[in-house]
Design a protein that fits this description.
Blueprint: H1 12-15, E1 17-18, E2 24-32, E3 35-46, E4 52-56, E5 61-64, E6 69-78, H2 84-95, E7 100-103, E8 107-111, H3 115-138, E9 150-155, H4 158-169, E10 178-181, E11 186-190, H5 197-200, H6 205-212, H7 217-235, H8 247-257, H9 276-285, H10 293-299, H11 302-305, H12 310-327, H13 329-340, H14 350-361, H15 364-378
Helix pairs in contact: 3-7, 7-8, 8-12, 9-12, 12-13, 13-14
The chain binds zinc ion.
Protein backbone atom coordinates (compact mmCIF):
# COMPACT_ATOMS: atom_id res chain seq x y z
CA UNK A 1 0.00 0.00 0.00
CA UNK A 2 1.28 3.47 -0.71
CA UNK A 3 0.33 6.68 1.03
CA UNK A 4 2.38 9.34 -0.75
CA UNK A 5 2.29 11.86 2.03
CA UNK A 6 5.99 12.40 2.47
CA UNK A 7 6.12 15.36 0.12
CA UNK A 8 3.46 17.37 1.87
CA UNK A 9 5.14 20.30 3.46
CA UNK A 10 2.39 22.57 4.47
CA UNK A 11 0.86 23.29 7.77
CA UNK A 12 -2.23 21.10 7.95
CA UNK A 13 -1.47 20.33 11.52
CA UNK A 14 -2.22 23.75 12.90
CA UNK A 15 -4.78 24.76 10.36
CA UNK A 16 -6.93 21.74 9.58
CA UNK A 17 -10.57 22.53 10.05
CA UNK A 18 -13.40 20.43 8.73
CA UNK A 19 -15.76 22.56 6.74
CA UNK A 20 -19.34 22.98 7.82
CA UNK A 21 -20.76 22.79 4.30
CA UNK A 22 -18.90 19.53 3.70
CA UNK A 23 -21.57 17.96 1.53
CA UNK A 24 -21.54 20.65 -1.12
CA UNK A 25 -19.66 20.05 -4.34
CA UNK A 26 -17.11 22.60 -5.48
CA UNK A 27 -15.26 23.04 -8.72
CA UNK A 28 -11.55 23.69 -8.29
CA UNK A 29 -9.16 24.72 -11.07
CA UNK A 30 -5.53 24.25 -10.13
CA UNK A 31 -2.02 23.75 -11.42
CA UNK A 32 -0.75 20.17 -11.15
CA UNK A 33 2.54 18.90 -12.60
CA UNK A 34 2.65 21.66 -15.18
CA UNK A 35 -0.98 21.29 -16.28
CA UNK A 36 -4.21 23.01 -15.35
CA UNK A 37 -6.79 20.60 -13.95
CA UNK A 38 -10.45 21.22 -13.21
CA UNK A 39 -11.87 18.83 -10.62
CA UNK A 40 -15.31 18.72 -9.05
CA UNK A 41 -15.37 17.37 -5.57
CA UNK A 42 -15.90 17.80 -1.88
CA UNK A 43 -13.51 19.93 0.17
CA UNK A 44 -12.72 17.80 3.22
CA UNK A 45 -10.22 20.10 4.89
CA UNK A 46 -9.01 23.62 4.28
CA UNK A 47 -5.83 25.10 5.68
CA UNK A 48 -5.32 28.66 6.84
CA UNK A 49 -3.82 29.77 3.54
CA UNK A 50 -6.73 28.37 1.56
CA UNK A 51 -5.13 25.10 0.43
CA UNK A 52 -7.56 22.19 0.35
CA UNK A 53 -7.87 18.44 0.57
CA UNK A 54 -10.36 17.72 -2.20
CA UNK A 55 -12.22 14.44 -2.59
CA UNK A 56 -12.96 13.84 -6.28
CA UNK A 57 -16.07 12.12 -7.61
CA UNK A 58 -13.93 9.09 -8.50
CA UNK A 59 -12.70 8.81 -4.90
CA UNK A 60 -9.29 10.35 -5.58
CA UNK A 61 -7.87 12.66 -2.91
CA UNK A 62 -6.16 15.83 -4.10
CA UNK A 63 -3.93 17.84 -1.79
CA UNK A 64 -3.84 21.27 -3.37
CA UNK A 65 -1.77 24.07 -1.87
CA UNK A 66 -3.19 27.59 -1.91
CA UNK A 67 -0.74 28.98 -4.51
CA UNK A 68 -1.69 26.20 -6.95
CA UNK A 69 -5.40 27.06 -6.86
CA UNK A 70 -6.53 29.20 -9.80
CA UNK A 71 -10.24 29.30 -9.13
CA UNK A 72 -12.66 27.73 -6.73
CA UNK A 73 -16.42 27.94 -6.91
CA UNK A 74 -19.46 26.15 -5.51
CA UNK A 75 -21.43 24.10 -8.04
CA UNK A 76 -24.70 24.40 -6.14
CA UNK A 77 -25.04 20.60 -6.24
CA UNK A 78 -24.53 18.09 -3.46
CA UNK A 79 -21.43 15.91 -3.71
CA UNK A 80 -22.16 12.81 -5.77
CA UNK A 81 -19.68 10.00 -6.47
CA UNK A 82 -19.51 8.70 -10.04
CA UNK A 83 -21.63 5.68 -10.87
CA UNK A 84 -19.66 2.52 -11.78
CA UNK A 85 -20.47 3.10 -15.47
CA UNK A 86 -19.39 6.73 -15.41
CA UNK A 87 -16.21 5.90 -13.53
CA UNK A 88 -15.56 3.04 -15.95
CA UNK A 89 -15.91 5.35 -18.94
CA UNK A 90 -13.33 7.70 -17.49
CA UNK A 91 -10.94 4.85 -16.74
CA UNK A 92 -11.16 3.68 -20.35
CA UNK A 93 -10.49 7.21 -21.62
CA UNK A 94 -7.47 7.45 -19.34
CA UNK A 95 -5.94 4.03 -19.95
CA UNK A 96 -6.43 3.67 -23.66
CA UNK A 97 -8.24 1.69 -26.34
CA UNK A 98 -6.98 -1.81 -25.47
CA UNK A 99 -8.67 -1.74 -22.04
CA UNK A 100 -12.09 -3.18 -21.25
CA UNK A 101 -14.40 -3.06 -18.25
CA UNK A 102 -15.79 -5.70 -15.97
CA UNK A 103 -18.23 -4.28 -13.42
CA UNK A 104 -19.28 -6.30 -10.39
CA UNK A 105 -21.40 -5.34 -7.39
CA UNK A 106 -18.64 -3.32 -5.69
CA UNK A 107 -15.81 -3.23 -8.23
CA UNK A 108 -14.97 -1.61 -11.52
CA UNK A 109 -12.24 -3.72 -13.07
CA UNK A 110 -10.44 -2.14 -15.97
CA UNK A 111 -8.23 -4.66 -17.78
CA UNK A 112 -6.26 -5.32 -20.91
CA UNK A 113 -5.68 -8.98 -20.17
CA UNK A 114 -8.08 -11.85 -20.93
CA UNK A 115 -11.69 -11.48 -19.95
CA UNK A 116 -11.49 -14.76 -18.02
CA UNK A 117 -8.89 -13.34 -15.66
CA UNK A 118 -10.88 -10.14 -15.11
CA UNK A 119 -13.87 -12.25 -14.13
CA UNK A 120 -11.77 -14.47 -11.89
CA UNK A 121 -10.27 -11.52 -10.07
CA UNK A 122 -13.68 -9.80 -9.78
CA UNK A 123 -15.17 -12.90 -8.17
CA UNK A 124 -12.18 -13.21 -5.84
CA UNK A 125 -12.55 -9.61 -4.64
CA UNK A 126 -16.29 -9.89 -4.15
CA UNK A 127 -15.78 -13.05 -2.09
CA UNK A 128 -13.14 -11.31 -0.03
CA UNK A 129 -15.39 -8.27 0.43
CA UNK A 130 -18.24 -10.42 1.69
CA UNK A 131 -15.98 -12.46 3.95
CA UNK A 132 -14.44 -9.29 5.37
CA UNK A 133 -17.80 -7.69 6.14
CA UNK A 134 -19.19 -10.85 7.67
CA UNK A 135 -16.07 -11.33 9.75
CA UNK A 136 -16.36 -7.88 11.33
CA UNK A 137 -20.11 -8.11 11.74
CA UNK A 138 -19.63 -11.25 13.82
CA UNK A 139 -17.12 -9.32 15.90
CA UNK A 140 -19.71 -6.61 16.53
CA UNK A 141 -18.49 -4.06 14.00
CA UNK A 142 -20.82 -2.96 11.24
CA UNK A 143 -18.98 -1.63 8.22
CA UNK A 144 -20.39 0.86 5.74
CA UNK A 145 -21.00 0.27 2.06
CA UNK A 146 -18.20 1.90 0.05
CA UNK A 147 -18.95 5.47 -1.04
CA UNK A 148 -17.19 4.87 -4.38
CA UNK A 149 -16.96 1.93 -6.76
CA UNK A 150 -13.72 0.10 -5.93
CA UNK A 151 -11.34 0.36 -8.85
CA UNK A 152 -8.86 -2.33 -9.88
CA UNK A 153 -6.68 -1.82 -12.95
CA UNK A 154 -5.36 -5.14 -14.24
CA UNK A 155 -2.52 -5.15 -16.76
CA UNK A 156 -1.84 -8.08 -19.05
CA UNK A 157 1.74 -8.58 -17.93
CA UNK A 158 4.50 -7.51 -15.59
CA UNK A 159 6.27 -5.18 -18.01
CA UNK A 160 3.23 -3.05 -18.87
CA UNK A 161 2.32 -2.94 -15.17
CA UNK A 162 5.80 -1.69 -14.33
CA UNK A 163 5.71 1.00 -16.99
CA UNK A 164 2.44 2.29 -15.58
CA UNK A 165 3.37 1.99 -11.90
CA UNK A 166 6.93 3.30 -12.01
CA UNK A 167 5.97 6.99 -11.59
CA UNK A 168 4.01 6.13 -8.42
CA UNK A 169 6.36 3.52 -6.97
CA UNK A 170 9.84 4.35 -8.26
CA UNK A 171 12.31 1.47 -8.10
CA UNK A 172 10.09 -0.38 -5.62
CA UNK A 173 8.07 -1.41 -8.67
CA UNK A 174 10.58 -4.20 -9.34
CA UNK A 175 9.48 -6.08 -6.22
CA UNK A 176 5.79 -5.43 -6.35
CA UNK A 177 2.99 -7.52 -7.86
CA UNK A 178 0.26 -5.01 -7.20
CA UNK A 179 -0.57 -2.14 -4.89
CA UNK A 180 -3.35 -0.08 -3.42
CA UNK A 181 -2.87 3.66 -3.52
CA UNK A 182 -4.64 5.68 -0.80
CA UNK A 183 -4.49 8.80 -2.93
CA UNK A 184 -6.12 7.41 -6.08
CA UNK A 185 -8.11 4.82 -4.09
CA UNK A 186 -7.23 2.32 -6.82
CA UNK A 187 -5.59 -1.05 -6.92
CA UNK A 188 -3.17 -1.66 -9.76
CA UNK A 189 -1.93 -5.16 -10.60
CA UNK A 190 -1.25 -7.57 -13.43
CA UNK A 191 -2.38 -10.96 -14.67
CA UNK A 192 -0.68 -13.51 -12.39
CA UNK A 193 -1.33 -16.57 -14.55
CA UNK A 194 1.76 -15.79 -16.61
CA UNK A 195 -0.11 -16.95 -19.75
CA UNK A 196 1.03 -15.64 -23.13
CA UNK A 197 -0.99 -13.14 -25.22
CA UNK A 198 -2.82 -15.83 -27.23
CA UNK A 199 -3.46 -18.22 -24.37
CA UNK A 200 -4.78 -15.66 -21.91
CA UNK A 201 -7.62 -14.58 -24.20
CA UNK A 202 -9.28 -17.97 -23.89
CA UNK A 203 -8.48 -19.10 -20.34
CA UNK A 204 -11.48 -20.55 -18.51
CA UNK A 205 -12.18 -20.07 -14.81
CA UNK A 206 -11.08 -23.60 -13.97
CA UNK A 207 -7.85 -23.23 -15.96
CA UNK A 208 -7.09 -20.00 -14.09
CA UNK A 209 -7.83 -21.64 -10.75
CA UNK A 210 -5.51 -24.51 -11.68
CA UNK A 211 -2.72 -22.15 -12.75
CA UNK A 212 -2.97 -20.18 -9.51
CA UNK A 213 -3.14 -23.24 -7.28
CA UNK A 214 0.33 -24.35 -8.34
CA UNK A 215 2.92 -24.58 -5.57
CA UNK A 216 4.45 -21.14 -5.20
CA UNK A 217 1.41 -19.34 -6.58
CA UNK A 218 -0.19 -19.02 -3.15
CA UNK A 219 2.06 -16.17 -2.05
CA UNK A 220 1.48 -14.42 -5.34
CA UNK A 221 -2.26 -14.52 -4.90
CA UNK A 222 -1.80 -13.51 -1.25
CA UNK A 223 -0.28 -10.20 -2.35
CA UNK A 224 -3.33 -9.13 -4.32
CA UNK A 225 -5.64 -10.26 -1.52
CA UNK A 226 -3.46 -8.21 0.81
CA UNK A 227 -3.84 -5.09 -1.33
CA UNK A 228 -7.56 -5.71 -1.81
CA UNK A 229 -7.92 -5.90 1.98
CA UNK A 230 -6.30 -2.47 2.32
CA UNK A 231 -8.74 -1.06 -0.21
CA UNK A 232 -11.78 -2.59 1.50
CA UNK A 233 -10.63 -1.40 4.94
CA UNK A 234 -10.22 2.17 3.67
CA UNK A 235 -13.59 2.17 1.92
CA UNK A 236 -15.88 0.67 4.52
CA UNK A 237 -15.12 3.01 7.41
CA UNK A 238 -12.76 0.66 9.25
CA UNK A 239 -9.92 3.02 8.34
CA UNK A 240 -9.85 6.54 6.99
CA UNK A 241 -7.49 7.50 4.19
CA UNK A 242 -4.94 10.17 5.10
CA UNK A 243 -5.65 9.72 8.79
CA UNK A 244 -2.88 8.68 11.15
CA UNK A 245 -3.47 4.94 11.32
CA UNK A 246 -0.34 3.19 12.66
CA UNK A 247 1.23 1.18 9.84
CA UNK A 248 1.51 -1.94 12.01
CA UNK A 249 -2.30 -1.96 12.31
CA UNK A 250 -3.00 -1.51 8.58
CA UNK A 251 -0.41 -4.10 7.66
CA UNK A 252 -1.31 -6.51 10.47
CA UNK A 253 -4.91 -6.39 9.30
CA UNK A 254 -3.99 -6.98 5.64
CA UNK A 255 -1.71 -9.89 6.57
CA UNK A 256 -4.38 -11.40 8.79
CA UNK A 257 -6.68 -11.61 5.76
CA UNK A 258 -4.13 -12.41 3.05
CA UNK A 259 -4.21 -16.21 3.43
CA UNK A 260 -5.95 -17.21 0.19
CA UNK A 261 -8.73 -19.68 -0.28
CA UNK A 262 -9.04 -20.45 -3.97
CA UNK A 263 -11.08 -23.61 -3.73
CA UNK A 264 -14.40 -22.81 -2.17
CA UNK A 265 -16.88 -20.84 -4.24
CA UNK A 266 -18.58 -19.41 -1.18
CA UNK A 267 -17.06 -18.28 2.08
CA UNK A 268 -13.36 -18.02 2.72
CA UNK A 269 -11.87 -20.85 4.68
CA UNK A 270 -8.46 -19.25 4.96
CA UNK A 271 -9.74 -16.33 6.98
CA UNK A 272 -7.74 -15.83 10.13
CA UNK A 273 -5.65 -18.97 9.70
CA UNK A 274 -2.09 -18.82 10.95
CA UNK A 275 -0.03 -17.05 8.32
CA UNK A 276 2.80 -19.61 8.25
CA UNK A 277 5.14 -17.43 6.23
CA UNK A 278 4.83 -14.54 8.67
CA UNK A 279 5.08 -16.77 11.74
CA UNK A 280 8.28 -18.37 10.41
CA UNK A 281 9.68 -14.92 9.69
CA UNK A 282 8.88 -13.66 13.16
CA UNK A 283 10.34 -16.70 14.93
CA UNK A 284 13.56 -16.26 12.93
CA UNK A 285 13.69 -12.64 14.08
CA UNK A 286 13.30 -13.46 17.77
CA UNK A 287 17.00 -14.12 18.59
CA UNK A 288 17.89 -10.65 17.25
CA UNK A 289 14.80 -8.85 18.47
CA UNK A 290 15.68 -5.81 20.57
CA UNK A 291 14.03 -5.23 23.96
CA UNK A 292 12.11 -2.20 22.74
CA UNK A 293 10.88 -3.83 19.53
CA UNK A 294 7.19 -3.61 20.45
CA UNK A 295 7.54 -0.08 21.78
CA UNK A 296 9.09 1.10 18.51
CA UNK A 297 6.38 -0.66 16.51
CA UNK A 298 3.64 1.06 18.48
CA UNK A 299 5.18 4.51 18.72
CA UNK A 300 6.13 5.20 15.12
CA UNK A 301 6.14 3.85 11.55
CA UNK A 302 9.90 4.21 11.33
CA UNK A 303 10.64 0.46 11.27
CA UNK A 304 8.57 0.18 8.09
CA UNK A 305 10.60 2.88 6.36
CA UNK A 306 14.00 1.38 7.17
CA UNK A 307 15.04 -1.17 4.50
CA UNK A 308 17.04 -3.06 7.16
CA UNK A 309 14.03 -3.47 9.42
CA UNK A 310 11.02 -3.52 7.18
CA UNK A 311 10.67 -7.32 6.86
CA UNK A 312 10.89 -7.87 10.60
CA UNK A 313 8.43 -5.04 11.12
CA UNK A 314 5.89 -6.74 8.85
CA UNK A 315 6.34 -10.10 10.55
CA UNK A 316 6.00 -8.57 14.00
CA UNK A 317 2.96 -6.54 12.92
CA UNK A 318 1.30 -9.76 11.77
CA UNK A 319 2.23 -11.55 15.00
CA UNK A 320 0.76 -8.83 17.22
CA UNK A 321 -2.36 -8.36 15.16
CA UNK A 322 -2.95 -12.10 15.06
CA UNK A 323 -2.36 -12.46 18.80
CA UNK A 324 -4.72 -9.60 19.65
CA UNK A 325 -7.41 -10.89 17.32
CA UNK A 326 -7.18 -14.39 18.80
CA UNK A 327 -7.00 -13.42 22.46
CA UNK A 328 -8.69 -9.99 22.68
CA UNK A 329 -11.08 -9.56 19.76
CA UNK A 330 -13.37 -7.19 21.68
CA UNK A 331 -10.53 -4.87 22.59
CA UNK A 332 -9.19 -5.01 19.06
CA UNK A 333 -12.58 -3.90 17.75
CA UNK A 334 -12.56 -1.10 20.32
CA UNK A 335 -9.07 -0.10 19.20
CA UNK A 336 -10.16 -0.08 15.56
CA UNK A 337 -13.12 2.13 16.48
CA UNK A 338 -10.77 4.54 18.21
CA UNK A 339 -8.50 4.67 15.15
CA UNK A 340 -11.45 5.06 12.77
CA UNK A 341 -12.18 8.41 14.45
CA UNK A 342 -8.73 9.84 13.72
CA UNK A 343 -9.08 13.03 11.65
CA UNK A 344 -7.42 13.38 8.28
CA UNK A 345 -3.98 14.98 7.98
CA UNK A 346 -3.34 15.24 11.70
CA UNK A 347 -0.46 13.28 13.10
CA UNK A 348 -0.28 11.82 16.58
CA UNK A 349 2.82 12.02 18.74
CA UNK A 350 4.58 8.75 19.62
CA UNK A 351 3.27 9.22 23.16
CA UNK A 352 -0.32 9.53 21.92
CA UNK A 353 0.03 6.36 19.86
CA UNK A 354 1.29 4.49 22.87
CA UNK A 355 -1.51 5.83 25.05
CA UNK A 356 -4.15 4.85 22.50
CA UNK A 357 -2.80 1.32 22.56
CA UNK A 358 -2.38 0.90 26.30
CA UNK A 359 -5.73 2.57 27.03
CA UNK A 360 -7.32 -0.42 25.29
CA UNK A 361 -4.91 -3.30 25.88
CA UNK A 362 -3.31 -2.35 29.20
CA UNK A 363 0.38 -2.14 30.10
CA UNK A 364 2.91 -3.74 27.77
CA UNK A 365 5.02 -6.09 29.98
CA UNK A 366 2.28 -8.58 30.94
CA UNK A 367 0.87 -8.41 27.42
CA UNK A 368 4.23 -9.25 25.91
CA UNK A 369 4.68 -12.18 28.28
CA UNK A 370 1.38 -13.66 27.19
CA UNK A 371 2.20 -12.91 23.54
CA UNK A 372 5.29 -15.13 23.63
CA UNK A 373 3.41 -17.95 25.36
CA UNK A 374 0.72 -17.71 22.70
CA UNK A 375 3.14 -17.77 19.76
CA UNK A 376 4.89 -20.85 21.10
CA UNK A 377 1.54 -22.62 21.09
CA UNK A 378 1.06 -21.73 17.39
CA UNK A 379 4.25 -23.36 16.07
ZN1 LIG B 1 0.16 -3.76 2.96
Amino acid sequence: MIKHLAGMAWAWLVAAATLAQAQEMQQVSFRHEGKTLVVKGQVLVEDRQGGVLLLGRDGRLWTISAPAILRRQPTGEPFAPFSPQELGKRLLAELGPDFELHITRHYVICYNTGRGYAHWVGALFERLYLAFRTFWKRKGLRLQEPQFPLVAVVFADKSSFRRHARPALGDAVENVLGYYNQRSNRMVMYDLTGAGPQQRRFLTQSQIRALLSRPGAERTVATIIHEATHQIAFNTGLQRRFADIPVWVSEGLAMFFEVPDLKSKRGWRGLGKVNRVRLRGFLAYLPHRPQDSLLQLLKSDQRFRDPQQVHHAYDEAWAWYYFLMRTRPKQLVQYHKLLAQKPVLQWDTPQQRLEDFTSVFGPLPPLEKEFFRFLKSQR
